[in-house]
């Protein structure tokens, strides 16, 4: 097979149970945002895919926990979502939506503690929020990977 000089051929492999669950659940979430009348069945399908990866495939892949957190958040289960997202917060390849939503949850929590006192966030609170967004703060526009 001819190849382009200076490039390597892509290595093809089977997707893991976690990667399949992540893809199916992300598709279900995206589609449910566009089709409000299908939100419940699509989120149920996302949960089944995640459950399959976690129970049948014994997946402990971080992206499975991240997408599970996003599904919980979409259903309004904020505490469960936060627990799942926090469990994978240090994962380098955490998907963009998971990073953003966890940063948003951390911001809301820190903001709720301020109340009407007029105080501002302390360094620890600010760091906890911005650390999730840090990978995106230093990239030039248009350079992010659309698949993460």
How would you characterize the overall build of this protein?
It is a single chain. The chain is an all-alpha fold and 148 residues long. It has one domain. The protein is 63% helix and 0% strand. It has helices at 17-34, 39-56, 62-74, 78-87, 96-114, 123-137. Helix 2 (39-56) runs antiparallel to helix 3 (62-74). It is globular, with a radius of gyration of 18 Å.
Helices and strands in order:
Blueprint: H1 17-34, H2 39-56, H3 62-74, H4 78-87, H5 96-114, H6 123-137
- What integer value in Å does the Rg equal? 18 Å
Taking pLDDT < 50 over at least 5 consecutive residues as the criterion, the unreliable ranges are: none
- The percentage of residues in β strands lies in under 5%
Main sheet record: none
**Helix/strand class:** mainly alpha
**Count of helical regions:** 6
Shape: globular
Helix content bin: 55-70%
Put the structure in a nutshell.
With 148 residues, the chain is mostly helical. The protein is built from six helices and no strands. Helices cover 63% and strands 0% of the residues.
Features of this protein?
6 helices, 148 residues, mainly alpha
